[in-house]
Amino acid sequence: MTSSTLAQINNDGGKKSVNTDGEVVIQSAIIGGALALVCIVGIIVLVCLARQWRRKLRIQKKRGTEAPGDSEANDANIQNTTYQNANINNGFVDPDIDADTDVARLSGDSTTYVNSLTSIYYNVGAQLPGVSLNNYAEYVQEMQEDHSRYADEFDELRNRPAYTHVEGQKKHNKLKNRFLTTFPYDHSRVILNRLPCEPDSDYINANYIDSVDSTKAYIATQGPNRHTIGDIWRMVWQEKIESIVMLANLVEDGKVKCECYWPTVLPVTYNHFTVSRISKTEMAMYTIRTLILTNTELSETRQVTQYHFTGWPDHGVPDTLELVAFLARVLRDNPRKTDAVPLLVHCSAGVGRTGTFIGLHALYTFGCDKKRVDVAEFVRKMRDNRMLMVQNVEQYRLLHIALLEAFNYTESSIKKSDFTKRYNDCINEQTSFITKEFQLLQSNKPAYSDQHFTAAKAPENHGKNRSEEILAVDKFRPYLNTYVEGTTDYVNATIVPSCKAQGRYIVTQAPLPATVVDFWRLIYDHDCYTIVVLNSPDQELEASGVWWPSMGDSVSYGSLTITTTSVKEVGKEITEKTYDIKKKGFGEARAVKSLHMGDWTSGQYKPASIETLLELVDLMEAWKRKCLCHTVAVQCTDGALCSGVFCAVSLALDGLRLEQEVDIYHTLRRLHVRRPEFIRNEDQYRFIYDVIAEYIESRGIYGNT
């Protein structure tokens, strides 16, 4: 090419080239650019395909498929499986519909919908691939060590076909949907019997969900809105529902999540159905309501039980042990039957929490029978019947870990009427059930690392802990709010939920000289009107950290002023002190009582007298009822040795009064999640049984319940 030709290319801006003969040719620049673009696009496509193929291959290898012959599991091996940090309540999850879920794809006009039912109801009762229960603990441990595996599997679940959902999008049904993008699939929706003269009254946002080995074992639905309360009771009657599982609170994070569709006091009527409440049992994490549903047209009545899990936080996932304990209660009251009616399950949208619970319930019951589970496959199956079941990766992870907890769950509750005989029988046993329980308790104790104690180990909190071995776990510590110059929001204390819906314990160490101010901030900020002090006075300890003023004296810490107004003996070994605590500019003073036990020497595993301990519990309960405040601060020297015993006894007695049964093992499981240093040895564990036995014996089998 000549220099004149090059000049002409430049002058023409690269559009065309004219050779010396005047022939027009396509510019080499455009050709080269186009070829380069094609190559780049091709490479990107190949890379994406390769990555997708590798990811699928990795998931298949990691999930594995085992021969049916390997499915026989040894129950003892399952029961003795040990694991650490099963509690995973540490992730944020939008409790409604995530913005980045595939619901946007489902509601788009370009979606390809599937109508064929052959891809939905498939091989019911067939042997599914999956993981043997013998290997399930190892499988979950591997998943925990590589969190990308949860994400990879969950991404695969997103790639499900979108089934038609025309009915939910019809104009006359829009007000019956709680969310604008969550609809029931047409092929599996629950179709209500139409009301007279109302042709559009057959719709409710609900779907039948298959179990692993049976059809229509569950109904997944949204929490009723004000337009659909009557519809849910029509569905309950039509489907002969006996039990309802509710997984949302009425209001969360300031938003209404579900209308109250049951009566609180007086009966309520919806169309030709009247609903009455005959009983309610409120526990810390769930409430059970027994309802009577009357069809006034037929003059027939049925009993319906609602299991309302209240322990699911506004954001994130619940405590694994609490969710499994709730599952155990539902299963105990509703044993599996071959001809069972559907279990009705709902949250707010009826997809995320609902899918998680149904997955847990279905896979646990199937796993107990067939000794193997396939979590991913069952979630796929649920999503073929209702969109977005198990809504996000945190719920998917929770499902795996909750299953492990469920397979290790030990039924340890003892009816009050059976307790004395069971307790007396174990005295003559060479290896008692109490010993076995304690050994299992030790093997399942959580192990926390330094990353769980960031506040306790922060430089500004150095010197605020009596022992570096007993620290406040970040997740469960109470935060201090009242400002006092030179302080932080940290105190070495942990929050322990009560068995009751209201109330909790805040367990703390005896204050050091530098933390007396923090102790009183704790009492005020967390509305503690009752303080239980377990260790008898120690002169050396008192000289280094006296936290109560003398009779008639006052002490001030910033805006807080504490005055001792009364000191008296209320029992042989119990002293009661009363304080007025006032915060400047915040109304009247509060009356706070401390109950001091005199026969439990610091460092001793148990008190000198069971009678004194029970008297202390009685005094605490009496003051709680009088002051109408159920938060109790429990204090011993190190915040663990004696406090663990007291809390275990008090919680076990709560269960005894509420449900006429005792479950000491799971009481300690819950306590260990909050502070693993509670209950140091079998002697302490056995002492809790001794106290409960004495309580039943001294109060009579039906006494004080």
3D architecture notes:
The strands form seven sheets. Strands 6-7-15-8-14-13-12-11 form an eight-stranded mixed β-sheet, sandwiched between helices. The termini are far apart. Helices cover 36% and strands 18% of the residues. A hairpin with a 2-residue loop joins strand 21 (554-557) and strand 22. It is built from 20 helices and 26 strands. It folds into two domains: 131-253 and 315-408, Protein tyrosine phosphatase superfamily (Protein-Tyrosine Phosphatase, Chain A, Alpha-Beta Complex); 419-700, Protein tyrosine phosphatase superfamily (Protein-Tyrosine Phosphatase, Chain A). By secondary structure, the protein is α/β, with parallel strands linked by helices.
Q: Mean pLDDT across all residues, rounded? A: 84
Strand order of the largest sheet: 6-7-15-8-14-13-12-11
Q: Compute the number of strand runs.
A: 26
Taking pLDDT < 50 over at least 5 consecutive residues as the criterion, the unreliable ranges are 1-30, 54-113, 115-127, 701-705
Report the total helices: 20
General form = globular
CATH-derived topology of the largest domain: Protein-Tyrosine Phosphatase, Chain A
Taking the alpha carbons of the first and last residues, their distance comes to 105 Å
Largest sheet: 8 strands, mixed
Classify the helix fraction into a percent range. Answer: 25-40%
| Main CATH class of the largest domain | Alpha Beta
Determine the CATH superfamily of the largest domain. Answer: Protein tyrosine phosphatase superfamily
CATH architecture of the largest domain: Alpha-Beta Complex
- The share of residues in extended strands comes to 15-25%
The SS-based structural class is alpha/beta
From the alpha carbons, calculate the radius of gyration and give it in angstroms. Answer: 32 Å
Total discrete domains: 2
